[in-house]
Amino acid sequence: MKKGIIGILLGLIIFTGCLNFAYAESTNIQTVEYYEDGSYLITTLTQNNIVGIGLLSTRSSKTETKKGHYYDSNGAIVWTASITASFTFNGTTASCTTVSKSKTIYNNSWKCTSSSCYKSGATATGDFTFKHYVLGIPNKTINRTLTLTCDKNGNIT
């Protein structure tokens, strides 16, 4: 009797293991903003979707990153700002659980003069201010807000 129960349990474990698998799909969503001086900002959201197939393939959390890459009029990268946020969702509601920010400066004449991030409900936001200096005097300011929002089904925009 004991061997029969163990055999049935092992069979169920193997059976459900065969029915469940997942694979990853990545898609990039980009927007480009052009400035009068020929510089431009590319904002990229890379959606890393884990697609589950099978009886037990449910997913209730995601972590995504949105990046803003600023380029000068010659096409050289000047700075990058990004936020990374984690979300939980259940088909009825969604919530942002954590958010963090980062920035990288590639051109010494630019400085990030302020940056902050916060979460509210199912939305994560990062605010950045970058300034360009010539002979120690600021001559250009770019404010950038990056936002990630999760819906009840785990779709991130």
Explain what you see.
With 157 residues, the protein is mostly beta strands. The protein has a single domain, classed as Immunoglobulin-like, CATH 2.60.40. It is 11% helix and 64% strand. The strands form two sheets. It has a five-stranded antiparallel beta sheet with strand order 1-2-3-4-5. Strand 4 and strand 5 form a beta hairpin. The longest helix has 18 residues.
Entry keywords:
157 residues; mainly beta; Immunoglobulin-like; three-stranded antiparallel β-sheet; 1 helix; 11% helix; 64% strand; elongated
Structural topology:
Layout: H1 2-19, E1 21-34, E2 40-53, E3 61-71, E4 77-89, E5 94-105, E6 110-120, E7 123-134, E8 137-149
Antiparallel strand pairs: 1-2, 2-3, 3-4, 4-5, 6-7, 7-8
Q: Can you summarize the main beta sheet?
A: 5 strands, antiparallel
Number of helices: 1
Q: And the CATH topology? A: Immunoglobulin-like
Which ranges are low-confidence, i.e. pLDDT below 50, for 5 or more consecutive residues?
Answer: 17-21
Total domains, how many? Answer: 1
Tell me what portion of residues adopts beta-strand conformation: over 45%
Rg, nearest Å: 22 Å
| End-to-end Cα distance | 54 Å
Q: What shape does the CA trace take? A: elongated
Percent helix, as a range, is 10-25%
CATH class: Mainly Beta
